[in-house]
């Protein structure tokens, strides 16, 4: 069994992205978006995503709509939907997200967005087969 006090774990992580658990059908990931940073516009063609915000403030941009996000908010992004999440505040925007099926390598730790982008583009951040 893996057990997390998820908000506390997410709030303590300095990493842009850190995979905490990967199963056959889902994956748990924590993220920290720096002030003025963003996840980056993307589409997961075959993966649904649930994002829960722990601290900080931001803006969800999903399917052409924009909405403020605050601690305690949850956003569902269905597979095939263009989305981005932007930090609009002075402090890190911290969240945890569940992908179904997994989206990243089982042991992925990306210190920065630039590192995450580079590893994804080079094919070094692929989910388990």
TrEMBL record:
Q: Region entry Disordered: which residue ranges?
A: 107-129
Q: Upper lineage ranks?
A: Bacteria, Bacillati, Actinomycetota, Actinomycetes, Micromonosporales
- Regions of biased composition (Basic and acidic residues) lie at 107-121
Molecular-function GO term, any one: isomerase activity
Q: What is this protein called?
A: Mannose-6-phosphate isomerase, cupin superfamily
Is ATP-binding found in the keyword set?
no
CDD domains registered for this protein in UniProt: cupin_Bh2720-like (cd02223)
In terms of superkingdom, the source organism counts as: Bacteria
PANTHER family registered for this protein in UniProt: LIGAND BINDING DOMAIN PROTEIN, PUTATIVE (AFU_ORTHOLOGUE AFUA_6G14370)-RELATED, QUERCETIN 2,3-DIOXYGENASE-RELATED
Read off the InterPro entries from this record: Cupin_2 (IPR013096), Flavonoid_dioxygenase-like (IPR052538), RmlC-like_jellyroll (IPR014710), RmlC_Cupin_sf (IPR011051)
Q: Provide this UniProt record's keywords sorted from A to Z.
A: Isomerase
A Pfam family the protein falls into = Cupin_2
Tagged with keyword Isomerase: yes
Gene3D superfamilies of this UniProt entry? Jelly Rolls
Give residue ranges for domain Cupin type-2.
30-99
